[in-house]
Design a protein that fits this description.
Elements: H1 2-18, H2 30-47, H3 49-64, H4 68-71, H5 74-88, H6 93-118, H7 125-134, E1 157-158, H8 161-177, H9 180-186, H10 191-208, H11 211-220, H12 230-239, H13 241-264, E2 283-288, E3 292-295, H14 301-307, H15 313-323, E4 327-328, E5 331-332, H16 333-337, E6 343-351, E7 354-362, E8 369-373, H17 376-401
Antiparallel strand pairs: 1-7, 2-3, 2-6, 4-5, 6-7, 7-8
Helix pairs in contact: 1-2, 1-3, 1-5, 1-11, 2-3, 3-5, 6-12, 6-13, 7-8, 9-10, 10-11, 12-13
Length: 402
C-alpha cells in the first residue's frame, strides 16, 4: 500500500503548501514554485504521516476558525475531512484507501445532485448568466452565440433562445463529465481508473479556474491505482467511530444542504454541501445617496453574497457587524447606510423569456424586501423604493443627531 501512503503524504504537503505565501519570480511562475514546494514537503511528510498530518490539520482548523468558516471555499473543508481520515487510519493504508475513494467520488456525485436539484445549472441559466456578464470575450465567442446586452449594461433583457440552448448543451456535457468518477471507482485498481480521475481533475480545474482544487484531485487520482474493497470500507466504519461519523456526514449533509439553502435563501456555494456552481452567484450591492445602487466592494463581500438574502436573522446581524466600520475608498460605509442596513443581492433569474434580476434588501428590523425586476415599470418601482429608503434613513440619522 505504498501508493496510498504517498497519496496521503502528498495531500498533507498540499495542505501545508497552501498556507505558504509565494511570489512569482522572473521566469518562475507562482504555480511552479508551489508545486516544487509541494513535492519537497511530500518527501518530508512521508517520513511521518502523523506529525506532518497533525500540523496540517491544526493549521487548517486555525484558518477555518471563527467567521472564516462561513466564507471559506469548500475544498478547504474537504481537505480537512481527508486529513482526518489520514490521521485516524495512518497505520491501516488499505482501510485508508477504501474510505478515501468513495469520499472522493461522493463529492462529484453530490455536485451533480446539487446542480439538478437547484435547476439553474441543468437548464443552462448558469452558463447564460456567466457569459452575459462578461459579454463573451475571447474564445467563448466560438462556442456560444452572442448574448446582448450584457448583465452589466441592463438589469433585464429578452433572452436568446439559441444561446440558451447552447448553454444547456454545455451544462449537460459538464454533468456527464462529473459522473466519470463513478466509472473510475468501478474499474479501480489500474491505470485506466487513475487516468479517468486525472483527466476530469485537469478539465474541470482549468474550466473553472479552481487550480487549488485541481491540485487536490490530481493527487487523489493516484488512489484509484488501488482496487476499491467494500469489505475494507465496512471494517473501517465498524472499528473506527470517527470514520463512521465522517462517512455518515458525507452521505447525509449534501442532500440536506441543498434543501436547507433553498429554504432559507443561503447561497449553495456556502456551508460545504458541494453546491459550487449549482446556482448563479449573487452580487452584493449597497445603497448610496439618491437611492442609487452599486456593487459593494468591502471586505465583508463574501459574507454578504453568501448570506445577504438569508431568512435567518443571525446571518443578517453577522453581516451588519462585519460591515460596520469598514472603509471603502476613504468613506465609512456604515455611515452611508445609517442603522437600517440597506444591503442586498442582485441575483439573475428567468421570467418567461426575460432575464430578470431579483433584488433583495436586507434590513435589520424586518424580513428582507425582494423585488423581481422583469420590466421597466418594476425597475422604476425599485428606484422609488430605494430613494424613499435613503431619505427616511437620512431623516432618522438627523433626528438622532439632534
Amino acid at each position: 500500500m505504498e501508493i496510498t501512503e504517498w497519496v496521503a503524504a502528498s495531500l498533507i504537503a498540499k495542505t501545508l503548501s497552501d498556507n505558504v505565501p509565494l511570489r512569482a519570480r522572473p521566469g518562475l511562475p507562482r504555480e511552479f514554485l508551489r508545486i516544487a514546494l509541494l513535492v519537497m514537503l511530500a518527501f518530508i511528510a512521508h517520513e511521518s504521516l502523523f506529525v506532518a498530518g497533525a500540523i496540517a490539520f491544526i493549521g487548517r482548523l486555525v484558518f477555518l476558525a471563527g467567521k472564516q468558516i462561513l466564507t471559506a471555499i469548500n475544498h478547504m473543508f474537504l481537505e480537512l475531512i481527508f486529513l482526518t481520515v489520514i490521521l485516524v487510519l495512518r497505520d491501516e493504508p488499505h482501510l485508508m484507501a477504501a474510505v478515501l475513494q468513495p469520499l472522493v467520488v461522493s463529492v462529484w456525485l453530490f455536485s451533480v445532485w446539487q446542480k439538478l436539484f437547484h435547476g439553474e445549472f441543468a437548464d443552462g441559466t448558469f452558463f447564460y448568466c456567466m457569459f452575459a456578464a462578461d459579454n463573451l470575450k475571447g474564445l467563448r465567442k466560438r462556442f456560444i452565440p452572442v448574448i446582448q446586452p450584457s448583465r452589466d449594461e441592463a438589469l433585464f433583457h429578452e433572452m436568446s433562445s439559441e444561446a440558451l440552448k447552447a448553454c444547456r448543451r454545455m451544462a449537460l456535457a459538464c454533468l456527464g463529465i462529473e459522473l466519470v468518477p463513478v466509472a473510475a471507482l468501478l474499474v479501480s485498481g489500474g491505470i485506466v481508473a487513475a487516468l479517468l480521475m486525472l483527466v476530469i481533475a485537469v478539465c474541470i480545474g482549468f474550466m473553472s479556474n479552481e487550480l487549488s482544487f485541481m491540485r487536490t484531485n490530481i493527487i487523489l487520482s493516484g488512489l484509484f491505482l488501488v482496487p476499491f474493497q467494500f469489505a475494507d470500507l465496512v471494517t473501517a466504519v465498524q472499528e473506527f467511530p470517527a470514520i463512521a461519523g465522517l462517512v455518515s456526514w458525507a452521505a447525509a449533509w449534501p442532500v440536506l444542504h441543498a434543501i436547507v439553502t433553498r429554504h432559507f435563501g443561503i447561497s449553495s456555494w456556502r456551508l460545504f454541501g458541494w453546491g459550487m456552481y449549482a446556482t448563479t452567484l449573487p452580487r452584493a450591492i449597497e445603497v448610496v445617496p439618491e437611492g442609487v445602487i452599486r456593487n459593494y466592494v468591502g471586505s465583508a463581500r463574501l459574507l454578504l453574497e453568501g448570506y445577504g438574502e438569508c431568512r435567518i436573522s443571525y446571518f443578517r446581524r453577522l453581516i451588519l457587524g462585519a460591515v460596520q466600520g469598514e472603509t471603502v475608498q476613504g468613506e465609512n460605509t456604515y455611515r452611508s447606510i445609517s442603522k437600517r442596513i440597506a444591503f442586498g443581492t442582485l441575483k439573475p433569474l428567468k421570467s418567461g423569456n426575460i432575464l430578470a434580476t431579483s433584488v433583495t434588501l436586507v434590513e435589520t428590523e424586518s424580513e428582507p424586501t425582494t423585488f423581481v425586476v422583469d420590466s421597466a415599470e418594476r425597475k422604476a418601482e425599485l428606484d422609488r423604493y430605494l430613494k424613499k429608503l435613503w431619505t427616511s434613513s437620512r431623516k432618522r440619522a438627523a433626528a438622532h443627531t439632534a
